[in-house]
């Protein structure tokens, strides 16, 4: 090694040791004949010193040495030789703050141009500049720490999975394009002109075949690919923790992977996570209007329809909007009774934005003096509003003096979606969504199918290999939309981090499912014949799960974006602006592949 | 879990325990009212028994139970409930051979068609059938053990690398096509019509950028891709252990990765491997005629040109073939003096085959009586031949009574290549290449460049980022072919398992290299501008290595083929015959990608 120690290693006990350090020049200060250099590497920062007035171990530093040192710029790569001495004014902010290195030699290994932005925690580079010079951005502490976290997450995932008897098996990247699911990236085959490989959206069929092979417990940390229009924070290539088990029931999967998540929290974050609560899809929708509720805070939905069914409305007036709505549903914004009219109007405008799309927002304010004031006072008397208060109480959401009730009405699906957005917004405004608090949740019993209005057919909500609940199988013929799946998602802080299902392992049921999804028998055979064949040669009951690894890392890192947990991410147009990819290729390549571009 | 134990778990201590096992029916024997079933899973085999004559813990087995058992076929998936009992005739060949399970219930979880080949160590399926039904092939012990070995190799690689402070960083799979090196697989970009990503042949530039970023020690077990015509045992997608270090010299890399290989041998095979010897490329070529010599055996080359320079040839005759040859080189086939004329003729024919291409083969036989007999007796007297014997001796290759000298002559490169083949063949015939013996070797000081006769230009022997030896840099302008690189290969048992180099980290030298390789400044900038730019912002000295992981696993597994160490390999036409890929894709997909096939 060109160095004897790293820049994060030296302590008081090393005083008088002769050392060689290598690294990047972070800063230089030159004052009154004394020169300080902060030298940085992955491990830390060490201060180097050159002092005209102080005798070196051998001699006064030479003029040459000063001249080399004064020629340095930020980010120069140097090799510094010297002796560890105790520092007069210690720096408690860095681990090497008790010592410094009195230089006896300094060699420039590589000079550096001034970087386009400062290599510091708070950078002055915008996103575009940071992406173009990603190799400089990666020098920043905060970004490097994210990738170190990611490495630790992968290590601990493997430690847990290996400990549970899982085998990591690599599945192929060049596979076959299938029509179901998202759009595939494809790869023209030169040796088979006119034909294409596809990059896997997940190793789903391969891991199921491994179960048919008897591998019993499989996992893989694996790259997957989806050619979809990139919304913020989606990447065309992403990484999954992909898992599958045989001879299990849903309960076994839930326990095994709750174990994984708790192991990760314990070993990576030092957090003892409580047992992960479970909620059905139906309840998640009813109480949170979302299949991935943020359970760091309560503020559960209370449905108000029917409150007055047994009440003789003294005011004699009905509120037509509510009476005609499929759903009237509210939340209790705790302690928000003090919201001004302006603030409530602003909230109303917020839910009426096109992204949310609510028609309006009704509120009830519970004043500190015990009186109720609402935006529907002309329809309901104070006495009548108390029925809502009672309904909230009976649902465990105490609405008390000082609180603000926010109500949305309309078609059930839309109203829930809108109130979900409002709930999350109020949670943020009230500081209830803390970055350093972690609440996990299993969501269970998803519907097997969802209706595609546009296509006029059923789609698999999870994927076509998901098994229906045995007790619901009869409904497949009579009421497919009511069939529940043996499918489950893990949600942390309102983000879906993983999902999976118990799989179909019988050929007949799998064929029935393809039929339901609009595959002709020929199409099913052409696309998935190998899997259905495999089911005939002794397929065990099996199921699995996949976690989004990039997302899981970002949640553990307390960040919203996954980009900074990926070493070399692509931008929203799918471009790597650093290497300038994708790019045109040579005509010779196109000719060999027997394809033509038609742009 | 559907089971209480696995099929490899039960021992005498479990006798009288009620258990539930799941697995595949391996065999059924039905004899005299007793029925034995061998039940198999990944963990082992357990014998189940049903005996009409023996009282069960609860009752005589029911007729129903017998009827279910008798309906079973090979590879049925079953759930067996029963009690562990001691076996009368123990089976020492299996770990559960002391016990069997007296059945109380048997449930068929999934029936199975008769598999197209037997699921046994020695299969009766040909390669084609095995590939088509790979999920059945993977059930065989031997194939499963290969993948378990692979898992262990990956685990131990990570244990070592993590322990040495390396960080595993995922680099992108969708990158940019570059002209240098092998053919790229490309991926049309839908969002950037007319443009393509390429799949990486290695993460070379990305790992170098990580060094520029200060990551200091990087590794990754990573899929790479090459669209080359597939020779036997090459796969279009393969896996590398990819590594890079900063602030190092070649010696540091050699020590670090010799450490990795020794760690793997120790932990995976229980073998204490000796220190890895080193040899220059020049010596490897001179002594073995190969840059990847199999050093499990000696039989080193001895060059014979010039033997008679100071000798007065008493016979007065010259052998024109040798006199005009650039190289005359022989090996000592120890103990082969007894080869018959027919055997020697057969060897001569062997080296004259087109694959080898030798013009002929000269032999000298050292008879047990001390006389020498050669195929060039009419040119050289016995006394003169003794000069060859002396030359062998002075080179440390004692040629003694009972030995057979085999000599090839011609143009240096060709003669070496031919004798290399012959040496390996003789090593095999003499049983010197044992599958359970492992000899590693570092080959060093490769030439930096090789001349492409057809293209009329220099090519990088390793890759364009490899640094020349500092002492040879001056030769770049005067005699490029003589420049040695800081490049190294690790060879085990005659197979190159890894290779790497110290990299160029200065922009000017990198630009000079591209120039030498025929890149115009514009081409160099377009293809590798980002890397040369990065070198200007403070690049540290760095270098690395990559190991072929599939190949390494096959060597550890004592096998010649890498295919059985890959879960789902492709055949020689790049096809996955199981899933039938590649395949045509929908016109809609082509339209969206703005490409057309022109077949």
From TrEMBL, chains A, B:
Primary residence: cytoplasm
Catalytic activity, EC: 6.1.1.12
Family matches, as CDD domains: AspRS_core, EcAspRS_like_N
Coiled coil: none
Keywords: Aminoacyl-tRNA synthetase, ATP-binding, Cytoplasm, Ligase, Nucleotide-binding, Protein biosynthesis
Transmembrane regions listed in the UniProt entry: none
Region (Aspartate), start-end ranges: 204-207
Annotated ATP binding sites: 226-228, 235, 496, 548-551
Keyword Transcription appears in the UniProt entry: no
GO terms, molecular function: aspartate-tRNA ligase activity; ATP binding; nucleic acid binding
A GO biological-process term: aspartyl-tRNA aminoacylation
InterPro entries from the UniProt entry: Aa-tRNA-synt_II, aa-tRNA-synth_II, aa-tRNA-synth_II/BPL/LPL, Asp-tRNA-ligase_1, Asp-tRNA-ligase_1_N, Asp/Asn-tRNA-synth_IIb, AspRS_core, GAD-like_sf
Annotated localization: Cytoplasm
Main EC class the enzyme belongs to: ligase
Catalytic activity reported: tRNA(Asp) + L-aspartate + ATP = L-aspartyl-tRNA(Asp) + AMP + diphosphate
Domain (Aminoacyl-transfer RNA synthetases class-II family profile) ranges: 147-569
Cellular component, GO annotation: cytoplasm
Residues binding L-aspartate: 180, 226, 462, 503
Statement: the UniProt record of this protein carries the keyword Oxidoreductase: no
Function recorded in the entry: Catalyzes the attachment of L-aspartate to tRNA(Asp) in a two-step reaction: L-aspartate is first activated by ATP to form Asp-AMP and then transferred to the acceptor end of tRNA(Asp).
Quaternary context: Homodimer.
Family membership noted in the UniProt record: Belongs to the class-II aminoacyl-tRNA synthetase family. Type 1 subfamily.
UniProt cross-references to NCBIfam families, sorted A to Z: aspS_bact, PRK00476.1
UniProt-recorded name of the protein: Aspartate--tRNA ligase
């Amino acid at each position: 090694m060109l160095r004897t120690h790293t820049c994060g290693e030296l302590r008081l006990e090393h005083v008088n040791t002769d050392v060689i350090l290598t690294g990047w020049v972070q800063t230089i200060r030159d004052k009154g004949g004394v020169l300080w250099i902060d030298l940085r590497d992955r491990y830390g920062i060490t201060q180097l010193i050159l002092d005209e007035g102080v005798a070196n171990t051998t001699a006064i530093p030479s003029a040459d040495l000063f001249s080399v040192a004064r020629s340095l710029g930020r980010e120069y790569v140097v090799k510094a030789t010297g002796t560890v001495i105790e520092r007069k004014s210690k720096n408690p902010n860095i681990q090497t703050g008790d010592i410094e290195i009195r230089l006896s030699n300094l060699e420039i290994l590589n000079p550096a141009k001034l970087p386009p932005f400062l290599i510091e925690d708070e950078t002055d580079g915008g996103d575009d500049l940071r992406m173009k010079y990603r190799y400089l951005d990666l020098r920043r502490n905060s970004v490097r720490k994210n990738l170190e976290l990611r490495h630790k997450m992968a290590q601990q995932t493997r430690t847990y999975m290996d400990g549970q008897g899982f085998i990591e098996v690599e599945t192929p990247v060049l596979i076959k394009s299938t029509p179901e699911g998202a759009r595939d990236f494809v790869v023209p085959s030169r040796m088979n002109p006119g034909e294409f490989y596809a990059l896997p959206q997940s190793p789903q069929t391969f891991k199921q075949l491994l179960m048919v092979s008897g591998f019993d417990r499989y996992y893989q940390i694996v790259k997957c690919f989806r050619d979809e229009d990139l919304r913020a924070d989606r990447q065309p290539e992403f990484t999954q923790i992909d898992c599958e088990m045989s001879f299990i029931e849903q309960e076994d999967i839930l326990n095994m992977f709750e174990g994984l998540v708790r192991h990760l929290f314990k070993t990576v974050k030092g957090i003892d996570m409580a047992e992960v609560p479970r909620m059905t899809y139906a309840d998640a929708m009813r109480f949170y209007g979302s299949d991935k509720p943020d359970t760091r805070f309560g503020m559960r939905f209370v449905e108000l329809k029917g409150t007055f069914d047994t009440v003789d409305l003294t005011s004699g007036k009905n509120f037509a909007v509510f009476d005609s709505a499929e759903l009237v549903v509210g939340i209790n914004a705790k302690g928000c009774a003090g919201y001004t009219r302006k603030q409530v109007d602003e909230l109303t405008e917020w839910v009426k934005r096109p992204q949310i799309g609510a028609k309006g927002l009704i509120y009830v304010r519970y004043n500190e003096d015990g009186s109720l004031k609402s935006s529907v006072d002309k329809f309901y008397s104070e006495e009548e509003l108390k029925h809502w208060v009672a309904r909230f109480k009976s649902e465990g959401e105490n609405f008390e003096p000082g609180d603000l009730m926010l109500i949305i009405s309309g078609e059930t699906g839309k109203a829930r979606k809108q109130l979900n957005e409002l709930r999350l917004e109020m949670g943020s405004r009230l500081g209830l969504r803390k970055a350093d608090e972690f609440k996990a949740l299993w969501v269970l019993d998803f519907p097997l199918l969802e209706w595609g209005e546009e296509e006029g057919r059923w789609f698999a909500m999870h994927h076509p290999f998901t098994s229906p609940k045995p007790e619901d199988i009869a409904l497949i013929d009579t009421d497919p939309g009511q069939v529940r799946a043996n499918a489950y998602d893990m949600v942390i802080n309102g983000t879906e981090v993983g999902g999976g299902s118990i799989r179909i392992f019988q050929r007949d049921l799998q064929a029935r499912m393809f039929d339901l999804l609009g595959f002709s028998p020929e199409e099913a055979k052409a696309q998935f014949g190998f899997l259905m064949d495999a089911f005939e040669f002794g397929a065990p009951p099996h199921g699995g799960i996949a976690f989004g690894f990039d997302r899981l890392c970002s949640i553990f890192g307390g960040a919203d974006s996954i980009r900074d947990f990926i070493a070399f991410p692509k931008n929203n147009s799918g471009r790597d602006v650093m290497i300038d990819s994708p790019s045109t290729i040579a005509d010779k390549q196109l000719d060999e592949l027997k394809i033509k571009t038609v742009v």
